[in-house]
Design brief:
With 182 residues, the protein is α+β, with helices and mostly antiparallel strands. The chain has one domain: 2-Layer Sandwich (Alpha-D-Glucose-1,6-Bisphosphate, Chain A, domain 4), CATH 3.30.530.20. 24% of the residues lie in helices and 40% in strands. It is built from three helices and nine strands, in the order βββαββββββαα. The longest helix is centred in the C-terminal third of the chain and has 28 residues.
Amino acid sequence: MENDTWEGGVPRTFGSGPSDPIRLVDEPGTWVEIEVSAPPSTLWAIVTDINLPSRFSGEFLGAEWTGGGPAIGASFIGRSHHPAMGEWEVESLVDHFEIDRSFGWATVNPRVPGSRWRFDLTANPEGTLLRFSMSMGPGPSGISFAINAMPEKEPRILFKRILEHHANMYRTVEGIKVMAEA
């Protein structure tokens, strides 16, 4: 469910809730959108490359398919790095796959994910509206360690993490636009 913006105008979403104050079980998230002067079929080949975000993100290092390729139910291991957490790997499972329309995955456990990520492509007269969205929780993830250590700071921890994800997502869609329009 979409619900206005975080501080600073960053769009915000909640899978449930939100609680007051915000909690991980609310599945807080964000999204970015950009118009791309290319058809969805051009973008599809780009957004289904699981290593693509590593070209633009300050955190994501890359991924490797472990079960199949881009298809519903396929799995991959993603690698990331954050100055506060070091480097880690996480398993993801493709849970959205509609050719030329939607590609998404859930981390850790698809029924109770640590996070969800998704690219949506909507054809329009100018080309394609590209939307990249994400949500955290309700399941545990790396951020759970910080929340468990400082539960009184959970809303602030989530807000800071949303801002970091939003910045990386924005750089990613900007990079996709340049690639697709080249």
